[in-house]
């Protein structure tokens, strides 16, 4: 159980009781050749709060992508820098780590990996009991206000006015949208890239999407007009616009550019990117000549209600038959199905998962040890770094990998 007694001097203080904080503290204790005094300081009254709500309460721990190079492709920020770290602690290591501590994991068809219990509490129990068994002290309501270098490491001032000394500090304060973690890192000479949200959905008010919420297509191609950013993947129509893994990935790829244009841009959707539409329309003219065009979608991948809406926008009357389809109407169908340009007027955070783009610049961090190049004995782990992944378990994988390596580096020094 977390212990709230406060002692003054520590070998290692981990600031932040999230996924990266726990993993790094456990890693120090497990790798150290001698017992070290380790504390996790958590500002709030609950540790692992994000793990609890992650993956809709199921915690998408990692992803079934075993090759380190392929894995890095899922990180719009951090890609190249993560190749080395993933060779040392990748997704297989995560799976083994949890298995060895009694947590069984399962892989879903889309590659996401969850505890077999479908409960994030399983992961929380594993991390808190591992920390407890290793004698790691967890102090809650122990927010760190400021940090300074001292003769034997660091002096930390807490929100509750306590002062602590630490030989080594791991900063695992999460996304830097909250100024607190950013201020601590900057105060010790580290440069930060400004934080902007990643993994969000697009707000679109357009007749093509009106009242179609809940409809999805498995493989739409989405592109931001006037930029290099594009992606292919599942798309979901929502009450306010579009979402789904394909859109979330695009938001991650373009996170910084979209913040710069205040989330006002034109999105081009190709609803059926790999389709020879001309061929299908010709076929249907022959096969379904006397049938009404609107009554059935000729495209397997396009839901009927979306097909009806496309026909309405083209101006095809309900009674019109396939043999009456004009060349002009055919051209308009092409335009809306392959090239629908929709104005985006804002964003909404995706309730299932969101992260921060930005954080501690990776060029200032030794990616083998996660130690600051500017401030010896200061380490980073998790989302405080300028690393973020797309949805699917990649953000926790970053927390596990960087936490593991930071912890091991401190232990090896000891
Ligand atoms: C709703 C939601 C669902 C998600 N689901 C998934 C998922 O299923 N799979 C996945 O891979 N990713 C998921 N993510 C992303 C993932 O949760 C984060 O990337 C991950 O939690 C980052 O871990 P962290 O330890 O770096 O930061 P955090 O989990 O944010 O932990 C940081 C901790 O530090 C504390 N703290 C901050 N400042 C201080 C301070 N000054 N002093 C003391 N303590 C401080 C905070 O209170 C917090 O507890 C989800 C995110 C959200 C928001």
Keywords:
414 residues, alpha+beta, FAD/NAD(P)-binding domain, 2 domains, 7-stranded mixed beta sheet, 6-stranded antiparallel barrel, disordered N terminus, binds flavin-adenine dinucleotide
Polypeptide structure, described:
This protein has 414 residues and is of the alpha+beta class. The protein folds into two domains: 9-196 and 353-413, FAD/NAD(P)-binding domain; 200-349, no CATH class. It is built from 13 helices and 20 strands. The protein has helices at 19-31, 49-57, 68-72, 83-88, 91-100, 120-133, 179-187, 245-253, 255-260, 277-287, 304-314, 327-339, 394-413; strands at residues 9-15, 38-41, 62-63, 105-107, 112-115, 137-139, 144-150, 153-158, 163-171, 192-198, 200-204, 216-224, 230-237, 241-243, 265-270, 340-349, 355-360, 365-366, 371-372, 378-380. Strands 1, 2, 6, 7, 8, 9 and 20 form a seven-stranded mixed β-sheet that branches. Strands 11-14-13-12-15-16 form a six-stranded antiparallel barrel. A three-stranded antiparallel β-sheet has the order 3-5-4. Helix 1 (19-31) packs parallel to helix 6 (120-133), helix 1 packs parallel to helix 13 and helix 2 (49-57) runs antiparallel to helix 6. The radius of gyration is 25 Å and the shape is elongated. The chain starts with 8 loop residues before the first strand and ends with a helix. Mean pLDDT is 95; it is low at 1-5. Residues 15-21, 41-44, 49-50, 53-55, 59-60, 143-144, 172-174, 180-181, 352-355, 382-383, 393-396, 399 line the site of flavin-adenine dinucleotide.
């Amino acid at each position: 159980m977390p212990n709230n007694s406060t002692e003054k001097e520590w070998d290692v203080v981990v600031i932040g009781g999230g996924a990266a904080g726990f993993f790094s503290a456990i890693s120090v204790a497990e790798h150290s050749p001698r017992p070290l005094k380790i504390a996790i300081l958590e500002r709030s009254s609950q540790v692992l709060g994000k793990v609890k709500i992650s993956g809709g309460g199921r915690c998408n721990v990692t992803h079934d992508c075993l090759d380190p190079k392929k894995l890095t492709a899922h990180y719009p920020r951090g890609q190249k820098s993560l190749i080395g770290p993933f060779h040392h602690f990748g997704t297989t290591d995560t799976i083994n780590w949890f298995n060895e501590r009694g947590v069984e994991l399962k892989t879903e068809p889309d590659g996401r990996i969850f505890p077999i219990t479908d409960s994030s509490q399983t992961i929380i129990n594993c991390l808190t009991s591992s920390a407890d068994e290793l004698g790691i002290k967890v102090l809650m309501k122990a927010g760190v206000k400021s940090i300074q270098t001292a003769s034997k490491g660091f002096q930390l001032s807490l929100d509750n006015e306590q002062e602590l000394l630490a030989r080594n500090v791991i900063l695992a304060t999460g996304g830097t949208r909250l100024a607190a973690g950013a201020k601590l890192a900057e105060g010790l000479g580290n440069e930060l890239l400004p934080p902007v949200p990643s993994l969000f959905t697009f707000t679109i008010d357009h007749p093509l999407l009106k009242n179609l919420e809940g409809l999805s297509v498995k493989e739409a191609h989405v592109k931001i007009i006037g930029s290099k950013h594009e992606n292919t993947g599942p798309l979901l129509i929502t009450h306010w616009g579009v979402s789904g893994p394909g859109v979330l990935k695009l938001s991650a790829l373009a996170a910084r550019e979209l913040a710069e244009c205040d989330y006002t841009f034109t999105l081009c959707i190709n609803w059926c990117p790999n389709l020879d539409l001309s061929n299908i329309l010709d076929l249907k003219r022959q096969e379904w000549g006397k049938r009404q065009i609107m009554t059935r979608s000729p495209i397997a991948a396009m839901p009927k209600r979306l097909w009806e809406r496309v026909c309405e926008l083209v101006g095809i009357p309900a009674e019109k038959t396939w043999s009456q389809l004009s060349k002009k109407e055919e051209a308009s169908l092409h335009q809306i199905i392959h090239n629908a340009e929709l104005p985006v007027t804002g964003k909404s955070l995706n309730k299932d998962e969101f992260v921060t783009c930005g954080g501690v610049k990776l060029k200032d961090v030794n990616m083998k040890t996660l130690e600051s190049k500017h401030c010896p004995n200061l380490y980073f782990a998790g989302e405080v770094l300028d690393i973020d992944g797309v949805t699917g378990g990649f953000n926790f994988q970053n927390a596990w990998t960087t936490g593991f390596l930071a912890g091991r580096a401190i232990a090896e020094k000891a």
